[in-house]
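Consider this record:
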Amino acid sequence: MSKTAFITGASKRVGKALAEHLASAGWSVIIHFNSSEKEAHELALSLTQKFPQQNFETIKANLSEMNEVENLISGVVEKYGKFELLVNNASVFDPGYIAETDTKLFDLQMNVNLKAPFFLMRDFARSCKEGNIINFVDTRITTNKSNFAAYSISKKALWDLTKMAALEFAPKIRVNAIAPGVTLPPEDKDETYLQKLAGNIPMKKPGGLIPILRSFDYILQNEHLTGQLLFADGGENLGQNV
């Protein structure tokens, strides 16, 4: 019987790559989505056709609505049983300096990027008892640049929460984090935009998805690793070499 992973924001981009990667390694996957219903169902169908011995399900929830968040894990466990891996991948990424951030923007970043993972982790520990949690933060947590102020604070806090949970939930549950950098272009940009961004990091090129997937595998395979952060960012966290 295959192990099961629950991935938030799994219908597109990094989340989709994680779902496909885990499926190819023999995992069943529960694909969470909010607005991308069509993409989520298409992914589940595609994976079912490729890996008929595994299970691929979809579940909808708005992670900015706490009543939906608080029913999410219990609903998954009730319907599909306990699962072994929680991946907090979904996030919102909206710009705004501190001086121009209103409460609506602040609350959205905090609810989706921090509050939802907090309660999903809590409920995973309560319902599933053992396994792995992998949180996605951001290489921005190493700087104090404020052009994405609320977003950056939410990710800084998620990294601190990762360490706190790793200590509390050990030894039955390991909790670690991955910090991507220049990975994929925004949906309204192209590869040229990404190459320009990558010119400012030590490795001088976008990482793409492979460094993230390899970091993911390392966390899962290293059974003595908890409370750690892997930077999949081409050295961006080090600062600029000027």
